[in-house]
Amino acid sequence: MTNSAGNAADVDPGLIALFDEVFADYRATHPHADSSTRDTELWVKAEQLGVVRLTGSEDSGGSGAGWYEAAELITAAVRHGVRIPLAEHDLLACWLLEAVGAPVGDAARTVALLDADGTATAVPWASTAERVVVTWPDGPNQLLADVPATDLRITPGTNLIGEPRDGLSVDIGSLTGTTVAAELVEQLRVKSALVRAIQVCAALDSIVELAVEHTSARVQFGRPLSKFQAIQHLISDIATEAALARAATESALMTAVDSDWSAPNLRFVVAVARSCAGHAASVAVRNGHQAFGAIGTTAEHRLHEYTRAALAWRSEFGSVRHWDDEVTRAALGAGGDGLWSLIVD
Questions:
Q1: pLDDT, tens digit, for every residue of 245-294?
Q2: Are 236 and 244 in contact (CB under 8 A)?
Q3: For residues 289 and 306, is the Cβ–Cβ distance under 8 A?
Q4: Which DSSP symbol is given to 316?
Q5: 77 and 26 in contact (C-beta within 8 Å)?
Q6: Are the C-beta atoms of 73 and 51 separated by less than 8 Å?
Q7: In sequence order, what E strands does the chain have?
Protein backbone atom coordinates (compact mmCIF):
# COMPACT_ATOMS: atom_id res chain seq x y z
CA MET A 1 0.00 0.00 0.00
CA THR A 2 1.10 3.55 -0.59
CA ASN A 3 0.31 6.72 1.28
CA SER A 4 -2.81 8.48 0.09
CA ALA A 5 -1.76 11.82 -1.37
CA GLY A 6 -5.02 13.49 -2.39
CA ASN A 7 -8.26 13.13 -0.47
CA ALA A 8 -10.79 10.56 0.63
CA ALA A 9 -12.03 10.14 -2.94
CA ASP A 10 -8.59 8.81 -3.92
CA VAL A 11 -8.89 5.74 -1.71
CA ASP A 12 -8.93 2.58 -3.82
CA PRO A 13 -12.54 1.29 -3.99
CA GLY A 14 -11.15 -2.24 -3.97
CA LEU A 15 -9.55 -1.56 -0.62
CA ILE A 16 -12.85 -0.32 0.81
CA ALA A 17 -14.56 -3.43 -0.58
CA LEU A 18 -11.93 -5.57 1.15
CA PHE A 19 -12.59 -3.87 4.48
CA ASP A 20 -16.32 -4.43 4.05
CA GLU A 21 -15.85 -8.06 3.10
CA VAL A 22 -13.67 -8.84 6.12
CA PHE A 23 -15.99 -7.19 8.63
CA ALA A 24 -19.19 -8.45 7.01
CA ASP A 25 -17.86 -12.01 7.11
CA TYR A 26 -16.85 -11.64 10.75
CA ARG A 27 -20.23 -10.22 11.67
CA ALA A 28 -22.03 -13.04 9.88
CA THR A 29 -20.04 -15.71 11.71
CA HIS A 30 -19.99 -13.88 15.07
CA PRO A 31 -23.44 -12.25 15.36
CA HIS A 32 -23.18 -11.93 19.14
CA ALA A 33 -19.50 -11.13 19.57
CA ASP A 34 -18.44 -9.79 22.97
CA SER A 35 -17.47 -6.11 22.69
CA SER A 36 -15.49 -6.26 25.93
CA THR A 37 -12.78 -8.50 24.50
CA ARG A 38 -10.34 -8.21 21.61
CA ASP A 39 -11.14 -11.14 19.35
CA THR A 40 -7.75 -12.72 18.69
CA GLU A 41 -9.03 -14.60 15.65
CA LEU A 42 -10.10 -11.36 13.96
CA TRP A 43 -6.93 -9.61 15.11
CA VAL A 44 -4.73 -12.29 13.51
CA LYS A 45 -6.72 -12.07 10.27
CA ALA A 46 -6.36 -8.29 10.28
CA GLU A 47 -2.60 -8.68 10.83
CA GLN A 48 -2.38 -11.04 7.88
CA LEU A 49 -4.21 -8.52 5.69
CA GLY A 50 -1.88 -5.72 6.78
CA VAL A 51 -4.53 -3.54 8.38
CA VAL A 52 -3.53 -3.81 12.05
CA ARG A 53 -0.75 -1.35 11.26
CA LEU A 54 -2.31 0.14 8.19
CA THR A 55 -0.60 3.53 8.51
CA GLY A 56 2.69 2.34 9.96
CA SER A 57 5.81 2.92 7.89
CA GLU A 58 6.88 0.00 5.75
CA ASP A 59 10.33 0.14 7.36
CA SER A 60 8.74 -0.66 10.73
CA GLY A 61 6.49 -3.42 9.44
CA GLY A 62 3.46 -1.28 8.59
CA SER A 63 1.52 -1.04 5.36
CA GLY A 64 2.41 2.58 4.57
CA ALA A 65 -1.16 3.78 4.01
CA GLY A 66 -2.56 7.11 5.16
CA TRP A 67 -5.31 8.52 7.32
CA TYR A 68 -7.86 8.49 4.50
CA GLU A 69 -7.50 4.73 4.20
CA ALA A 70 -7.58 4.42 7.99
CA ALA A 71 -10.80 6.45 8.12
CA GLU A 72 -12.39 4.04 5.65
CA LEU A 73 -11.21 1.08 7.73
CA ILE A 74 -12.66 2.55 10.93
CA THR A 75 -15.91 3.40 9.15
CA ALA A 76 -16.25 -0.14 7.77
CA ALA A 77 -15.82 -1.63 11.24
CA VAL A 78 -18.56 0.64 12.61
CA ARG A 79 -20.82 -0.07 9.66
CA HIS A 80 -20.74 -3.79 10.39
CA GLY A 81 -20.93 -3.41 14.15
CA VAL A 82 -17.46 -4.86 14.72
CA ARG A 83 -15.60 -3.66 17.84
CA ILE A 84 -11.83 -3.83 17.47
CA PRO A 85 -9.08 -1.40 18.66
CA LEU A 86 -7.50 -0.76 15.27
CA ALA A 87 -7.46 3.01 15.70
CA GLU A 88 -6.07 2.93 19.23
CA HIS A 89 -3.34 0.50 18.17
CA ASP A 90 -2.30 1.91 14.79
CA LEU A 91 -3.22 5.59 14.68
CA LEU A 92 -2.40 6.41 18.30
CA ALA A 93 -0.08 4.01 20.16
CA CYS A 94 2.12 2.71 17.35
CA TRP A 95 2.21 6.10 15.64
CA LEU A 96 3.51 7.69 18.84
CA LEU A 97 6.21 5.02 19.22
CA GLU A 98 7.34 5.58 15.65
CA ALA A 99 7.33 9.34 16.18
CA VAL A 100 9.87 9.08 19.02
CA GLY A 101 11.95 6.46 17.21
CA ALA A 102 11.01 3.58 19.52
CA PRO A 103 10.65 -0.02 18.28
CA VAL A 104 7.11 -1.18 17.60
CA GLY A 105 7.05 -4.96 17.21
CA ASP A 106 3.90 -7.04 17.03
CA ALA A 107 2.20 -6.56 20.42
CA ALA A 108 -1.36 -5.24 20.53
CA ARG A 109 -1.32 -1.79 22.08
CA THR A 110 -3.34 1.13 23.30
CA VAL A 111 -2.30 4.51 24.67
CA ALA A 112 -2.89 6.37 27.95
CA LEU A 113 -2.19 9.90 29.15
CA LEU A 114 -1.25 9.60 32.81
CA ASP A 115 -1.53 12.38 35.36
CA ALA A 116 1.31 13.29 37.72
CA ASP A 117 0.22 10.48 40.07
CA GLY A 118 0.49 7.86 37.32
CA THR A 119 -3.24 7.29 36.87
CA ALA A 120 -5.65 7.49 33.94
CA THR A 121 -9.34 6.78 33.56
CA ALA A 122 -11.44 5.34 30.73
CA VAL A 123 -8.40 4.08 28.84
CA PRO A 124 -9.70 2.35 25.68
CA TRP A 125 -9.00 -1.37 25.45
CA ALA A 126 -6.33 -1.38 28.17
CA SER A 127 -7.58 -4.62 29.71
CA THR A 128 -7.21 -6.40 26.35
CA ALA A 129 -3.87 -4.90 25.31
CA GLU A 130 -0.51 -6.61 25.54
CA ARG A 131 1.35 -3.33 25.99
CA VAL A 132 0.27 0.23 26.78
CA VAL A 133 2.09 3.32 25.56
CA VAL A 134 1.90 5.78 28.45
CA THR A 135 2.91 9.42 28.71
CA TRP A 136 3.16 11.48 31.88
CA PRO A 137 4.33 14.95 32.96
CA ASP A 138 7.83 15.36 34.35
CA GLY A 139 8.26 19.01 35.30
CA PRO A 140 8.15 21.03 32.08
CA ASN A 141 8.64 17.89 29.99
CA GLN A 142 6.53 14.91 29.00
CA LEU A 143 7.89 11.38 29.19
CA LEU A 144 6.83 8.23 27.34
CA ALA A 145 7.21 4.51 28.00
CA ASP A 146 5.96 1.37 26.26
CA VAL A 147 4.87 -0.78 29.20
CA PRO A 148 3.75 -4.42 29.35
CA ALA A 149 0.12 -4.50 30.46
CA THR A 150 1.08 -6.95 33.20
CA ASP A 151 3.17 -4.20 34.84
CA LEU A 152 0.14 -1.93 35.20
CA ARG A 153 -2.72 -1.94 37.67
CA ILE A 154 -5.80 -2.10 35.46
CA THR A 155 -9.33 -1.75 36.76
CA PRO A 156 -11.76 -3.07 34.13
CA GLY A 157 -14.60 -0.84 32.97
CA THR A 158 -16.77 -0.42 29.88
CA ASN A 159 -18.50 2.30 27.95
CA LEU A 160 -22.16 2.32 26.90
CA ILE A 161 -21.65 -0.37 24.27
CA GLY A 162 -19.45 -2.64 26.34
CA GLU A 163 -16.07 -1.64 24.91
CA PRO A 164 -13.25 -1.68 27.50
CA ARG A 165 -12.70 1.72 29.11
CA ASP A 166 -10.42 0.87 31.98
CA GLY A 167 -8.83 2.57 34.93
CA LEU A 168 -5.05 2.40 34.93
CA SER A 169 -2.34 3.22 37.43
CA VAL A 170 1.41 2.70 37.72
CA ASP A 171 4.29 3.86 39.87
CA ILE A 172 5.85 6.29 37.41
CA GLY A 173 9.04 6.24 39.44
CA SER A 174 9.55 2.66 38.29
CA LEU A 175 9.32 3.59 34.60
CA THR A 176 12.18 4.51 32.31
CA GLY A 177 10.79 7.27 30.16
CA THR A 178 11.79 8.80 26.86
CA THR A 179 11.28 12.53 26.45
CA VAL A 180 8.47 13.28 24.02
CA ALA A 181 7.86 16.70 22.49
CA ALA A 182 4.85 18.62 23.76
CA GLU A 183 3.76 19.01 20.14
CA LEU A 184 3.47 15.24 19.78
CA VAL A 185 1.36 14.94 22.92
CA GLU A 186 -0.96 17.66 21.62
CA GLN A 187 -1.11 15.89 18.28
CA LEU A 188 -2.05 12.69 20.10
CA ARG A 189 -4.97 14.49 21.76
CA VAL A 190 -6.17 15.88 18.44
CA LYS A 191 -5.85 12.54 16.65
CA SER A 192 -7.73 10.77 19.43
CA ALA A 193 -10.57 13.29 19.18
CA LEU A 194 -10.74 12.99 15.40
CA VAL A 195 -10.89 9.18 15.57
CA ARG A 196 -14.05 9.43 17.65
CA ALA A 197 -15.58 11.97 15.26
CA ILE A 198 -15.02 9.54 12.38
CA GLN A 199 -16.65 6.73 14.35
CA VAL A 200 -19.66 8.84 15.36
CA CYS A 201 -20.18 9.88 11.73
CA ALA A 202 -20.10 6.25 10.63
CA ALA A 203 -22.72 5.39 13.23
CA LEU A 204 -24.90 8.31 12.10
CA ASP A 205 -24.70 7.18 8.48
CA SER A 206 -25.87 3.72 9.51
CA ILE A 207 -28.77 5.20 11.49
CA VAL A 208 -29.88 7.13 8.41
CA GLU A 209 -29.64 4.02 6.23
CA LEU A 210 -31.63 1.89 8.66
CA ALA A 211 -34.27 4.58 9.16
CA VAL A 212 -34.80 5.08 5.43
CA GLU A 213 -34.98 1.33 4.86
CA HIS A 214 -37.46 0.77 7.69
CA THR A 215 -39.81 3.66 6.90
CA SER A 216 -39.85 2.78 3.21
CA ALA A 217 -40.77 -0.85 3.87
CA ARG A 218 -43.10 -0.49 6.86
CA VAL A 219 -46.74 0.06 5.86
CA GLN A 220 -49.30 1.73 8.12
CA PHE A 221 -52.85 2.72 7.14
CA GLY A 222 -52.26 1.47 3.64
CA ARG A 223 -49.07 3.36 2.81
CA PRO A 224 -45.36 3.31 3.73
CA LEU A 225 -44.32 5.26 6.81
CA SER A 226 -42.05 7.33 4.58
CA LYS A 227 -45.14 8.90 2.98
CA PHE A 228 -46.20 10.53 6.26
CA GLN A 229 -44.98 14.10 6.58
CA ALA A 230 -44.04 13.75 10.25
CA ILE A 231 -41.83 10.76 9.45
CA GLN A 232 -40.29 12.62 6.53
CA HIS A 233 -39.33 15.43 8.89
CA LEU A 234 -37.74 12.98 11.33
CA ILE A 235 -35.66 11.33 8.63
CA SER A 236 -34.65 14.57 6.91
CA ASP A 237 -33.43 15.99 10.22
CA ILE A 238 -31.30 12.89 10.86
CA ALA A 239 -29.88 13.02 7.33
CA THR A 240 -29.15 16.75 7.57
CA GLU A 241 -27.36 16.48 10.89
CA ALA A 242 -25.40 13.44 9.73
CA ALA A 243 -24.33 15.27 6.56
CA LEU A 244 -23.21 18.32 8.55
CA ALA A 245 -21.20 16.16 10.94
CA ARG A 246 -19.65 14.26 8.05
CA ALA A 247 -18.71 17.48 6.20
CA ALA A 248 -17.12 18.98 9.32
CA THR A 249 -15.20 15.79 10.06
CA GLU A 250 -13.97 15.35 6.50
CA SER A 251 -12.87 18.99 6.47
CA ALA A 252 -10.93 18.50 9.70
CA LEU A 253 -9.31 15.35 8.34
CA MET A 254 -8.31 17.10 5.13
CA THR A 255 -6.84 20.01 7.07
CA ALA A 256 -4.87 17.59 9.24
CA VAL A 257 -3.50 15.48 6.40
CA ASP A 258 -2.73 18.38 4.08
CA SER A 259 -0.77 20.18 6.82
CA ASP A 260 0.86 17.05 8.26
CA TRP A 261 -1.07 17.77 11.46
CA SER A 262 0.48 21.22 11.85
CA ALA A 263 -2.19 23.66 10.60
CA PRO A 264 -2.59 26.62 12.99
CA ASN A 265 -6.37 26.14 13.04
CA LEU A 266 -6.27 22.35 13.35
CA ARG A 267 -7.57 22.14 16.91
CA PHE A 268 -10.39 24.52 15.99
CA VAL A 269 -11.58 22.49 12.98
CA VAL A 270 -11.38 19.26 15.00
CA ALA A 271 -13.39 20.96 17.76
CA VAL A 272 -16.00 21.95 15.15
CA ALA A 273 -16.14 18.36 13.89
CA ARG A 274 -16.58 17.00 17.40
CA SER A 275 -19.23 19.61 18.24
CA CYS A 276 -21.22 18.92 15.07
CA ALA A 277 -20.96 15.15 15.52
CA GLY A 278 -21.98 15.37 19.16
CA HIS A 279 -25.09 17.43 18.52
CA ALA A 280 -25.98 15.35 15.46
CA ALA A 281 -25.93 12.25 17.64
CA SER A 282 -28.66 13.71 19.85
CA VAL A 283 -30.94 14.31 16.87
CA ALA A 284 -30.18 10.98 15.21
CA VAL A 285 -30.80 8.95 18.35
CA ARG A 286 -34.05 10.72 19.24
CA ASN A 287 -35.49 10.79 15.73
CA GLY A 288 -34.23 7.36 14.80
CA HIS A 289 -36.01 5.68 17.70
CA GLN A 290 -39.15 7.71 17.06
CA ALA A 291 -39.20 6.60 13.43
CA PHE A 292 -38.79 2.95 14.41
CA GLY A 293 -41.20 2.99 17.32
CA ALA A 294 -41.18 0.03 19.68
CA ILE A 295 -39.17 -2.25 17.40
CA GLY A 296 -36.22 0.12 17.59
CA THR A 297 -35.89 -0.40 21.34
CA THR A 298 -35.51 -4.17 21.17
CA ALA A 299 -32.16 -5.90 21.61
CA GLU A 300 -32.84 -7.95 18.47
CA HIS A 301 -32.92 -4.92 16.17
CA ARG A 302 -29.57 -3.45 15.14
CA LEU A 303 -30.57 0.19 15.58
CA HIS A 304 -29.29 0.29 19.16
CA GLU A 305 -25.83 -0.81 18.02
CA TYR A 306 -25.45 2.54 16.30
CA THR A 307 -27.46 4.86 18.54
CA ARG A 308 -25.71 3.70 21.73
CA ALA A 309 -22.35 3.76 19.96
CA ALA A 310 -22.86 7.34 18.80
CA LEU A 311 -23.75 8.42 22.34
CA ALA A 312 -20.77 6.57 23.83
CA TRP A 313 -18.14 7.81 21.39
CA ARG A 314 -19.26 11.44 21.35
CA SER A 315 -18.34 11.71 25.04
CA GLU A 316 -14.83 10.23 24.76
CA PHE A 317 -11.65 12.29 24.41
CA GLY A 318 -13.69 15.33 25.37
CA SER A 319 -17.41 15.81 26.00
CA VAL A 320 -19.74 17.68 23.65
CA ARG A 321 -19.70 20.63 26.02
CA HIS A 322 -15.91 20.59 26.09
CA TRP A 323 -15.72 20.86 22.31
CA ASP A 324 -18.50 23.47 22.19
CA ASP A 325 -16.45 25.55 24.60
CA GLU A 326 -13.34 25.08 22.47
CA VAL A 327 -15.16 26.38 19.41
CA THR A 328 -16.53 29.35 21.35
CA ARG A 329 -13.17 30.31 22.86
CA ALA A 330 -11.41 30.08 19.51
CA ALA A 331 -14.07 32.17 17.76
CA LEU A 332 -14.04 34.84 20.47
CA GLY A 333 -10.25 34.88 20.48
CA ALA A 334 -10.12 35.37 16.72
CA GLY A 335 -12.56 38.27 16.83
CA GLY A 336 -14.51 39.64 13.92
CA ASP A 337 -11.41 40.32 11.84
CA GLY A 338 -9.81 36.91 12.35
CA LEU A 339 -12.81 34.57 12.33
CA TRP A 340 -12.82 33.94 8.59
CA SER A 341 -9.11 33.12 8.59
CA LEU A 342 -9.68 30.74 11.49
CA ILE A 343 -12.27 28.88 9.46
CA VAL A 344 -10.50 28.68 6.09
CA ASP A 345 -6.76 28.71 6.86
A1: 999 999 999 999 999 999 999 999 999 999 999 999 999 999 999 998 86
A2: no
A3: no
A4: T
A5: no
A6: yes
A7: 109-113, 119-124, 131-138, 141-148, 153-155, 165-169, 178-180, 219-220, 223-224
